Amino acid sequence: MPFHVRLAVDEDLDTLLAMRQEIANWLASRGSDQWQNPWPDERRQRGRILSGIVRRETWLLCEGGRAVATISLLDYDAGNLWTGTEGGREPALYVQRLMVRPGYMGLRIGVRLLGMACVHAVQRDLPWIRLDAWTTNVELHHYYLRQQFHFKGYIPDKVLERPDLAGYPSAALFERGVDTGRAGGGEAVRCARHEAKNFSTLPQNGSTTRAAEGSVKTPALQR
């Protein structure tokens, strides 16, 4: 059954929460503390995800009628997390809630969704793609480095000291350029456009291609 991308709608909220829990369970089985508790609490986490749907920022990758992955794309710094970082006030596209169901990891879905983000950034004339990753998930950090992101340090302490960010668990900042004049740009853009071009070329779940690519990991992104 072919894959397709669509905007999430209000009725997808429970699906997204279930996907998140499925991935949280997978992360726990690997010894990670990521997503083991909602931040800052379940009610506000649910509201944050719903807000992304209402604002038409959240996309779903579906196989037939089943959502198997998601990504949210924003053209603003939600929470002003990059305030105080070098170049942090420059325009950028911000990636949130990149998630792939465990049964679909190894298909380069995360890579292609990041490619879609790159295309969106180019279309909006935004020179950077930025994201904040779970602070303690080093494997996740390495994943983004392999996707030509650059580690930009951690959210400044003066930002994390704000009451609304108390206990914020995703303080590792990553950035990738999306034009030939930026660090991480050029070839990254060409590759990203190729990856994002046609989701229908993804191998189907359980195929031999997926088994061959089983070492490719697509971790989740917290927000």
TrEMBL record:
Residues 199-210 have a biased composition (Polar residues). It holds the Pfam family Acetyltransf_1. Residues 199-223 are annotated as: Disordered. InterPro entries: Acyl_CoA_acyltransferase, GNAT_dom. Residues 3-175 form the N-acetyltransferase domain. This is N-acetyltransferase domain-containing protein.
